[in-house]
Specification:
By secondary structure, this protein is an alpha/beta fold. The protein has 17 helices and 21 strands. The protein starts with a strand and ends in a 15-residue tail after the last helix.
Length: about 525
């Protein structure tokens, strides 16, 4: 069973159903608090750690009290700081008090001196102030509390001048209390990803049963840190109806073909990459590197003949199909050359580095069955059940359209009707906005809704890039790729993805080696 991505209301309904079926809210809270403590211990180590637990009202504060108890049992020195909480008939409060944990109430710490001192002394800060239900701006006492914690943390984490005896080593490590959020960081809207100005960013977020949409949407993703999904005892079948989930290693492994010992390159398929121009010689190289690293048996680059020497000098794994060009940009005549060879391939990628110049636009228009620029008979890829008289339809393998291929598609009326069914479109938000005919900010404001709606409308798979890339199919299923890494915020991102260590560790990325 995969890891689901839910709205606040969906999570509430799942919890209510679980409670009605015998997994009580009290059991879920106990499991949640224990999971927070276990995640802290596994990631940082609880024994002998000085832990400050910030406790609020409601279930989130209850989870924090349970976590405090388990952390104390693990050998941590735990201090409770209570923003506000009704403790009458609060079993978890009674159990925490039975551990003789020191407690400070905000009501008794009006100048917040004790809070500052506790933050300075702590190794770990557990944020159990507000959970998924809060959507209002943070004001009053909680605003002051969070501002105090943020400012004190910033001071502790501020780099100090190092001795010049070894300047190459940089600044010495600064003691940094780790912030652990219970379910969501306080100030993060769990549905929209909106962040309150005083939100407390976490280094580790332990969320309960399912990922919340706010964890994967900007700007909230900046405040989540490492995300851990805790099992709190809810039966997996209760979330079967949820159509959105995170990609997991098991899910991806199940999609990959087996690689038997007696395999040969033909076993793993042939990919054709139509890419490149005189100004963008790196794009075809990066795409081909990625295809090879992904395990493709044979990769062929179909590119303008003029750039072949440049690309081939840096890429030894690929074969080549040299195409007619107009000053280094693919020309419409290239369609005839592709038509003779495309049937030999199992998949086609079109777009990286093609440019948006007129010859490239005419090439793609004719390739997809549009009117030839010079009045010649059509030879492009037509996807009607019965081609019109005089048209030569060609069966196109599964198709991926990327980069300039998308920008050129946006200029073709009803372009989605010209692609094979369930083609894969891989836009970033700017390219998505051009395909839709809206502003980039509108796409960013509703990434999930945009991907789902357009996949259904166009009848194609939409892979909307960004932190936590979304993959939406026409039937409404969405899979979220669990990666948000600034190392990919560069034109060389594909190169680093292709060259990164197969171990999958984030610290294998080049930006972490420096």
């Amino acid at each position: 069973m995969g890891i689901k991505v839910v709205t606040t209301e969906e999570m509430r309904q799942i919890e209510n159903t679980a409670d009605a079926s015998g997994v009580t809210f009290a059991q879920m809270m106990e499991n949640a608090g224990r999971s927070v403590a276990e995640a802290v211990d596994a990631w940082i180590g609880a024994k002998d750690a000085r832990v400050l637990v910030l406790v609020g009202p409601g279930n989130n504060g209850g989870d924090g009290l349970v976590a405090a108890r388990y952390l104390a049992d693990m050998g941590a020195a735990v201090h409770l700081y209570i923003w506000k909480r009704e403790i009458k008939e609060d079993k978890n409060w009674e159990l925490a008090c039975a551990k003789n944990l020191p407690v400070t109430w905000l009501a008794e710490d009006r100048d917040l001196t004790a809070l500052r001192q506790l933050v300075v002394q702590s190794d770990i800060i557990v944020d159990a102030l507000l959970g998924t239900g809060n959507v209002r701006p943070i004001k009053g006492e909680l605003e002051l509390l969070l501002q105090t914690v943020r400012h004190t943390l910033a001071e502790r984490r501020r780099p100090r001048d190092a001795s010049l005896c070894a300047p190459a080593e940089g600044n010495p490590k600064v003691a940094m209390p780790v912030v652990v959020a219970v379910d969501v960081p306080t100030g993060l809207n769990s549905d929209t990803g909106a962040l309150d100005p005083v939100a407390l960013p976490a280094d580790l977020t332990v969320t309960m049963a399912a990922v919340k949409r706010g964890h994967i949407l900007s700007p909230g993703v900046r405040a989540v840190g490492k995300l851990v999904v805790a099992d709190i005892g809810i039966p997996a079948t209760l979330s079967d109806h949820i159509r959105m989930e995170m990609a997991t290693p098991a899910m991806v492994a199940a999609l990959l073909p087996e690689r038997p010992a007696d395999a040969h390159k033909g076993t793993f398929g042939k990919a054709l990459i139509v890419a490149g121009s005189v100004n963008y010689t790196g794009a075809p190289q990066l795409a081909a590197h990625a295809a090879v690293r992904a395990g493709t048996g044979l990769v062929t680059l179909a590119l303008p003949q003029a750039i072949h020497p440049i690309v081939a000098a840096h890429l030894v794994e690929a074969t080549y199909l040299l195409l007619p060009h107009d000053m280094g940009v693919l020309a419409p005549d290239a369609v005839r050359v592709l038509a003779e060879r495309v049937g030999d391939y199992d998949a086609v990628l079109i777009g990286p580095g093609l440019t948006q110049e007129k010859p490239a636009a005419e090439f793609l228009q004719e390739l997809l069955g549009g009117a030839p620029a010079t009045g010649r008979r059509r030879v492009g890829f037509l996807h009607r059940e019965e081609p019109e008289p005089g048209e030569a339809g060609i069966t196109l393998p599964p198709l991926v359209v990327d980069a300039d291929g998308l920008n050129l598609l946006a200029k073709i009326e009803q372009w989605w009707r010209r692609l094979p069914a369930s083609s894969i479109l891989t836009p970033h938000p700017g390219e998505m906005a051009r395909l839709i005919g809206c502003e980039t900010k509108d796409v960013v404001a509703d990434r999930i809704g945009c991907a789902v709606e357009m996949a259904a409308r166009w009848g194609h798979v939409v892979l909307l890039k960004g932190a936590y890339t979304l993959v939406a199919d026409p039937e409404g299923r969405v899979v979220v790729l669990p990666f948000a890494n600034p190392a990919l915020a560069t034109a060389a991102a594909t190169f680093w993805r292709a060259r990164s260590s197969p171990c999958g560790r984030r610290d294998c990325l080049p930006s972490r080696r420096q």
